[in-house]
């Protein structure tokens, strides 16, 4: 195929990877694992979502021929390992994760559209790109998955992916669509972090 | 590739998808999740098995360019959300799931044979198509996986896939093979539901 | 693509598959599952790692057109089912698993290099080939994952894959590189088994 997938400016793309990788390595550190396991979790979390998206598209994983992705993940694992835990205690890691989520959902949606999939499928692939790395991290670590928590998370991913796909299909230039969609998703996830916004849970009599 | 995969009549194919999606959405509702999470579980369960089959075949996932699959899944999530839980309480959802299992195992096996894989591998891909969506649903939800329960489930999938592959390879017309195999698997799973048939478990002294 | 992936001598390749399949079937037997579930676990464990590697490479799974892999897995499941559990009680199964790990990491790395991926990515794919089958087995069975245990496991996989990639890229003949790398990884994992060597765990104040 001659598809040219869209690219984020490299610093954003690698920044999102680094943040997700950090979250994986920090979880492994909290579970008192070795450095090698920390690095493995950094990898699973950092490239998991994009790898599943690429497997669904039937193309080789994006990081196989990229020079920077894996070194960035290794660096994130080293940082998680050597910087004392208490430095991580504020909520800024959650903010960085929110940024990674917004960026990856946007990138996944735009890449799927470049492969000419149906609009709804592109939105789904965007959500998968943003959320699946964290799901894999949580499932393998044996902790409750992020998507089962009541705070808005998948919802922010869905808003990002849907607005990105909608704008691109309406003819808005791709870069502008991606920027607006990422901002919208980041704002929603940020609002959820600040005010603990939750969607109503299923609450019929059981 | 120029492979033309077999198709189920659309109402059966989408019916199987809808039933699996329903089972995912209902599990999420029982776990008191939000609507977005319900829809996400409907997606994982409805397309998980076929997606893994397609990734193993090295081809794009079947739902990327299909117009109906994702709307059906969204509709299933809405139905699960808005119809009171007690309506779901009979065992008819298990019967519908048995139908979905039989249909998807058949479809997966026939699609694999169309890609010219080895007979045993086609049977395995049929089982994967029928069972893996439910496995992913259970693993992410953190509940015991359906394949670990003693009732016949994987066994019904194996019967379906093996009889389908056997008949097609013996020259029985594809449509007839698929119909007979689906009926056989549905009958076995149904018998297991009615009489709680179980295979003997491993029971040597531990 | 015209890539000719490297092959292990068949008896080593199938031997590694058999050992991993055995470990999956024995886990299912310990959990008192039926024979069909045992065989399914044998399959997941025996081909899981290589299948994920192939999905990441964007190529069909290696076992789809192979005549021997699935019969070997079925045979492993039968052996696990019929040979009394106490015969398995020594540690020799762990030694066989160590051999499988070393062989599969080597094979995965060499196959990835044959597809011309970046060196670090080839190492990662080698580790994935060796470790992911066991991870899938543990996650679906609901037991703590092998990569979360303190003993050297992923580390032995990393040593194997890194030394294999390093030697091949330095021009050492492929067969020699693979043999030396597999021996090194097997020796490290074996040392970990004999002396319970562990890497230091993350131990900063929490």
From TrEMBL, chains A, B, C:
Name this polypeptide is given: Trimeric intracellular cation channel family protein
Family: Belongs to the UPF0126 family.
Superkingdom of the organism of origin: Bacteria
Keyword flag Methyltransferase: no
Transmembrane portions of the chain: 6-28, 35-56, 62-83, 95-114, 120-140, 152-172, 178-197
Entry annotated with the keyword Membrane: yes
Major localisation: membrane
Location of this chain's protein in the cell: Cell membrane
Keywords carried by this UniProt record: Cell membrane, Membrane, Transmembrane, Transmembrane helix
InterPro entries, per the entry: Gly_transporter
């Amino acid at each position: 195929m001659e598809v040219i997938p869209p690219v984020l400016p490299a610093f954003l793309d690698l920044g999102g990877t680094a943040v997700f990788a950090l979250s994986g390595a920090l979880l492994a550190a909290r579970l008192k694992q070795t450095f090698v396991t920390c690095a493995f979790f950094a990898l699973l979390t950092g490239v998991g979502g994009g790898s599943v998206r690429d497997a669904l598209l039937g193309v080789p994983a994006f990081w196989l021929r990229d020079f920077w992705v894996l070194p960035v993940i290794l660096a994130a694992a080293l940082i998680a390992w050597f910087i004392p835990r208490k430095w991580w205690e504020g909520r800024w890691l959650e903010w960085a994760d929110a940024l990674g989520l917004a960026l990856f959902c946007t990138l996944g949606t735009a890449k799927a559209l470049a492969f000419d999939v149906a609009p709804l499928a592109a939105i789904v692939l965007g959500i998968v790109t943003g959320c699946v790395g964290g799901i894999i991290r949580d499932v393998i670590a044996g902790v409750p998955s992020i998507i089962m928590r009541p705070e808005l998370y998948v919802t922010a991913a869905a808003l990002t992916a849907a607005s990105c796909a909608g704008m691109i299909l309406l003819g808005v230039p791709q870069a502008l669509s991606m920027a607006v969609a990422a901002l919208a998703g980041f704002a929603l996830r940020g609002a959820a972090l600040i005010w603990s916004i939750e969607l109503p849970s299923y609450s019929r009599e059981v």
